[in-house]
């Protein structure tokens, strides 16, 4: 059993890595459309979904989603649902990995084989995703504590920079009153999706009190606004369209004077590489457990190791295959994932409540 | 050979004969007889194990001072710690651990503990030196070690369980813990692991430490082996378990967390800001010794644009004469450094200084002048070696020593990305380790102890 603060870490990691997962890309695409309004809508929506899902999972203390589904739904339905959700989580991790390979090629190691980098990432992620849930949370805490000061430093550096154009930011604010599309809202709500990992991590938590739920709202708002506005303030309202990874371009524009590293990009890259890989580890850890849950019968204890290696092999093969697609399609895939994800999450919350109703009917 | 009729005269004589027969060809086996007329007292012991002064004072002198043999028998049976046995096997075992068998009037066999134990006196700690504070260390005797701990921890909750490990060495262990504070699950786990050990010989606590660890390929120590009583007592008060092994001046402390290896005992004695500074210094040392060589490889051959331009030029300039890639340069120098450390460790003190002189002065300056390695490289290797020694517990120091090679390899293959991935894996690996069921790497590890205490206090 771990303390409640680890839940907020799960939220934080997901919120922080949104930069890599095409959230700024999607928001900037409609920066003169409904992006601002989407952010305003996303905050209460995200907090509400967090609240509902945690309430739902609290009805099943110390159980993971596969255990809940297998106990309360027919085998065929629960297995299908678990596999579908697993593919969602797998895609989340996959997009993070692939876009980070892209970032590495663009900004850090230009002359290296993308497959090599992907293999390295896959090795780290696959080795670490088999670690048990509790340990992953401890590791997450350490990495967040190391990286948080770095991120704050970069944020301050960007906001306080003389070339940061507050006019551009103000310009975006003038477009606040516009109806957002579903896609905008789906993109903006992504940063709140950390709670969804509780589907598996719930088994190491006591029922959560959620005393600091407001903190998620406040932090979410801050992170969304910085995600969206800092690249715009730095690169300009129009120019920002030219960059695939606006945040990395922003970091690349920053310089430090009093340090042995000149380009802030490397600090940014360092902290985001650890966070992204960590996030991919967590996503794939969840996916792995959901898949294993889908293939274990109700009574049998779940089997370890051998199936792990098979799933790792399949994950890696798909990643290496998807990696060959081009940047444009990847961009599309990323934004499509963000939209599908919102529906998936809503369905997940709903199914947890249906499971709860069925369990009550069973006991009554 | 169990004797059914205890104290019957002829059988006890035969038991003694059988023991003598089984232990023949031992030149240090002594059979002595007292009483001139009818040879009433015989005693048998191993002269190499028994203390002759003790035998003289407690066995021989009283005999001649007493008039009747009955008085002597009474004296013998009232002696504290005396054993009465009639089984030949048991008697043999006792003789082998330093007892003397005394047969009075060819009747009862008394076993008297005459063991002479050679041990070093309690001296100052040598492997974990601190500036101020208590300096005595454990020695090789179990009783003395228990005394050192009991003396510092005067609580009725301090429990001591003893057991014997090793079919041949019969080494005595003592499991010490504070009953009110210890985590019962850890205690149970320790008992199970100790109980399942089947060894011929156990020589010391470092060996025990290795047998107790859950995995053979553990990269990091999951128990602390220390020679400092104050560390042992401090850890006892935190609810940990101390295992004292007879014949070893080190004790095992478990369970531990990563942070424990970066705590020196004088941290408690210093003002808070100073001890925080020292602690952060140690973590910085850890970071430098693990990553610096890899960073040099990555930044001088791979991601050359990371440095500020002046530094990049400086490194490149100093590497101008070096004929091979930085990866090989680093590995060569690090290996030389490892040889040097090993050599100065194992050499006798008289020759030890030669190794450091040859290695440090000649190798360092000559290699740079010959252009085989760069100047900056030499500085870097020295920093790596020195910052390794900042870690206060040697066990951790050894583990950390090998980590840098893995990172160098990753840096040579993937550059900065490789280092970051390596560090990430390392963090996750550390987080996945368990020391007797307790998480090894946890930030804010102190709340674990606090919660452990309350759990134990409520009597689970």
From TrEMBL, chain A:
<keyword id="KW-0812">Transmembrane</keyword>
<feature type="transmembrane region" description="Helical">
    <location>
        <begin position="266"/>
        <end position="288"/>
    </location>
</feature>
<feature type="transmembrane region" description="Helical">
    <location>
        <begin position="7"/>
        <end position="28"/>
    </location>
</feature>
<feature type="transmembrane region" description="Helical">
    <location>
        <begin position="107"/>
        <end position="129"/>
    </location>
</feature>
<feature type="transmembrane region" description="Helical">
    <location>
        <begin position="185"/>
        <end position="205"/>
    </location>
</feature>
<keyword id="KW-1133">Transmembrane helix</keyword>
<protein>
    <recommendedName>
        <fullName>Spore germination protein</fullName>
    </recommendedName>
</protein>
<dbReference type="InterPro" id="IPR004761">
    <property type="entry name" value="Spore_GerAB"/>
</dbReference>
<keyword id="KW-0472">Membrane</keyword>
<feature type="transmembrane region" description="Helical">
    <location>
        <begin position="82"/>
        <end position="101"/>
    </location>
</feature>
<feature type="transmembrane region" description="Helical">
    <location>
        <begin position="334"/>
        <end position="356"/>
    </location>
</feature>
<feature type="transmembrane region" description="Helical">
    <location>
        <begin position="34"/>
        <end position="54"/>
    </location>
</feature>
<feature type="transmembrane region" description="Helical">
    <location>
        <begin position="309"/>
        <end position="328"/>
    </location>
</feature>
<feature type="transmembrane region" description="Helical">
    <location>
        <begin position="136"/>
        <end position="156"/>
    </location>
</feature>
<dbReference type="Pfam" id="PF03845">
    <property type="entry name" value="Spore_permease"/>
</dbReference>
<feature type="transmembrane region" description="Helical">
    <location>
        <begin position="212"/>
        <end position="238"/>
    </location>
</feature>
From TrEMBL, chain B:
<dbReference type="Pfam" id="PF03323">
    <property type="entry name" value="GerA"/>
</dbReference>
<feature type="transmembrane region" description="Helical">
    <location>
        <begin position="283"/>
        <end position="302"/>
    </location>
</feature>
<dbReference type="InterPro" id="IPR004995">
    <property type="entry name" value="Spore_Ger"/>
</dbReference>
<feature type="transmembrane region" description="Helical">
    <location>
        <begin position="322"/>
        <end position="340"/>
    </location>
</feature>
<feature type="transmembrane region" description="Helical">
    <location>
        <begin position="241"/>
        <end position="262"/>
    </location>
</feature>
<keyword id="KW-0472">Membrane</keyword>
<keyword id="KW-1133">Transmembrane helix</keyword>
<dbReference type="InterPro" id="IPR050768">
    <property type="entry name" value="UPF0353/GerABKA_families"/>
</dbReference>
<feature type="transmembrane region" description="Helical">
    <location>
        <begin position="405"/>
        <end position="431"/>
    </location>
</feature>
<keyword id="KW-0812">Transmembrane</keyword>
<comment type="similarity">
    <text>Belongs to the GerABKA family.</text>
</comment>
<protein>
    <submittedName>
        <fullName>Spore germination protein</fullName>
    </submittedName>
</protein>
<feature type="transmembrane region" description="Helical">
    <location>
        <begin position="372"/>
        <end position="393"/>
    </location>
</feature>
